[in-house]
Specification:
Elements: H1 5-11, E1 13-20, E2 29-32, H2 35-38, E3 44-55, H3 68-82
Antiparallel strand pairs: 1-3, 2-3
Length: 84
């Protein structure tokens, strides 16, 4: 999930970004350094160019959480794709 907690609290929605085992290859890709903290079994890439909105009730479980350094990279990747 890459959305602010207020989105869930106020609207019952979350934004999710694609995670893949394919190495980073372009705009909005961020290599996840701490895969264990993120609950990922292999080296992975966050693809900020591929996000979706889900109703929060559709989230079955949270596998892990990005480490602080990976959160910073994810923010940069999201900003690069969004232009905000």
């Amino acid at each position: 999930m890459v959305s602010h907690p207020d989105l869930t609290a106020r609207l019952g929605r979350v934004w999710v970004a694609m995670i893949t085992s394919v190495p980073p290859s372009g705009l909005g890709d961020a290599a996840i350094g701490d895969t264990a903290a993120a609950g990922l079994p292999v080296a992975s890439t966050l693809r900020a160019s591929k996000i979706a909105t889900l109703d929060a009730g559709r989230v079955i479980r949270v596998a892990g959480r990005l480490a602080d350094a990976d959160q910073k990279l994810a923010r940069r990747a999201l900003l690069a794709c969004s232009g905000f």
